[in-house]
Automatic annotation (TrEMBL):
It comes from the Eukaryota. This is UDP-glucuronate 4-epimerase 5. The gene is LOC107414699. Belongs to the NAD(P)-dependent epimerase/dehydratase family. The chain crosses the membrane at residues 20-41. Pfam families: Epimerase. GO terms for cellular component: Golgi cisterna membrane. The keyword Isomerase applies.
């Protein structure tokens, strides 16, 4: 009598135990789902636009060229950045379909990037808020847009900041570039790539003017090293997958809507605020000089590179023949001493600068840059037309409008 009674109780015990654990199991699954859903919506890495309904059609619409004869469709990374903004506008204005990508990071005041993006959106360029390291998203973009070209301008810029935050250079200039190349590789058809390298790859090279064939194996900064690595990575992807790639070595680009971390920009700001500015010089009072290049000239060079780019030969990750691989200097071939830059700014701003001359610290900056433009001239028809005086005049006009006149208006 005892035994069946025990068995019955045991069975009862087992069933309730089973129900108990089953409930716990279901509860845990629910908890996991809730957590990952919450994470999905709250994660700051998730681009805002992807949650917007109709996202796909906004991308497709923005990628469509206005004129069927101007049949390019271009994805621009770093579109809310200085050069990216100007290139996107120029492409849109001539009738190409343009979609931008930007992560709006905080390396410099993001409100400047937001304002650039607002102008782009007003001109019909949709800017997706995303990190280029998100290759899943890039692949999705490339499948929606059917882009003929990718203009890759997103990067971690600046030479000195690398001492503070080396990781961000690896993230954007190495991992980001590979992510862009990986998504191009898988796209069908593969778009051609035009991307921004830098004059800093010439590093400690003392033979001037710098020609594309000169040695670039002595970088003076981590920034330069990541750009040089980018050129080698580009070589490998061109070789293996048949992606058509053009690298552009920009020389100290300046102009309206420029980057606040650059000397001409911070000098302008500090001169107007009567703050002291530091001017660095090399050993034996050697002046630092730069081949300052006006942004409109750079834009013309980018468009010429784009229009002369051949198609990629790969398809579905397989190469079908050799593809174009090019690299060009885009400079002004007229180096100007930093002291001269300051004196032009003083005249334009009608304020005398409080200058302090210091020996140049060993932080990655080079003494001198000067581009040999023969190759860009013969192959791209590149010919810069804006001198520093004219370019800075346009910059100062914009600066005063943007930071003084416009903000006064918005206060009123
Ligand atoms: C534009 O159209 C022309 C003529 O149809 C074609 O030859 C050319 O390859 C097209 N360009 C691109 C970039 O698709
Ligand atoms: C890039 O994204 C991947 C995930 O897609 C992540 O594992 C990796 O750590 C990221 N790389 C950097 C440098 O942020
Ligand atoms: C500029 O580069 C070209 C090759 O692109 C070379 O033939 C020429 O000699 C260079 N000019 C100078 C002044 O170095």
């Amino acid at each position: 009598m005892d035994k069946p009674m025990f068995a019955h109780r045991n069975r009862y015990y087992l069933t309730s135990k089973l129900i108990f654990w089953f409930t716990i199991f279901i509860f845990l699954i629910l908890l996991y789902c809730l957590r990952s859903c919450f994470y999905y919506y709250s994660s700051s890495n998730r681009p805002r636009h992807i949650l917007q309904s109709g996202w796909d059609s906004l991308v497709a619409q923005s990628a469509t060229p206005a004129d069927p004869d101007c049949n390019l469709s271009i994805l621009v990374t770093g579109a809310a950045g200085f050069v990216g903004f100007h290139v996107s506008l120029a492409l849109k204005k001539r009738g190409d379909g343009v979609v931008g990508v930007d992560n709006f990071n905080r390396y410099y005041d993001p409100s400047l990037k937001r304002d650039r993006a607002k102008i782009l959106e007003r001109n019909g360029v949709f800017v997706v808020e995303a990190d280029i390291n998100d290759s899943e998203l890039l692949e999705k973009l490339l499948s929606i847009g059917k882009f003929t070209h990718v203009v890759h301008l997103a990067a971690q810029a600046g030479v000195r900041y690398a001492m503070k935050n080396p990781d961000s250079y690896i993230h954007s200039n190495i991992a980001g570039l590979i992510s862009v190349l990986e998504s191009i590789k898988s796209a069908n058809p593969q778009p051609a790539l035009i991307w921004a390298s830098s004059s800093s790859v010439y590093g400690l090279n003392s033979k001037v003017p710098f020609s594309e064939k000169d040695r670039t194996d002595q970088p003076a900064s981590l920034y330069a090293a990541t750009k040089k690595a980018g050129e080698e990575i580009a070589h490998a992807y061109n070789h293996i997958y048949g992606i058509s790639i053009t690298g552009l070595r920009f020389f100290t680009v300046y102009g309206p809507w420029g980057r606040p971390d650059m000397a001409y920009f911070s000098f302008t700001k500090d001169i107007l605020k009567r703050k002291r500015i530091m001017i660095y010089e090399g050993p034996n009072q050697r002046s630092v000089a730069r081949d300052f290049t006006y942004v409109d000239d750079i834009v013309k060079g980018c468009l010429a590179a784009l229009d002369t780019a051949e198609k990629s030969t790969g398809s579905g990750g397989k190469k079908t023949g050799p593809a174009q691989l090019r690299v060009y200097n885009l400079g002004n071939t007229s180096p100007v001493m930093v002291k001269k830059l300051v004196s032009i700014l003083e005249k334009l701003l009608k304020v005398e600068a409080r200058k302090q001359v210091l020996p140049m610290p060993r932080n990655g900056d080079v003494m001198f840059t000067h581009a040999n433009l023969s190759l860009a001239e013969t192959e791209l028809g590149y010919k810069p037309t804006t001198d520093l005086q004219t370019g800075l005049k346009n910059f100062v006009k914009w600066y005063l409008y943007y930071y003084y006149f416009q903000s006064e208006k918005s206060v009123m």
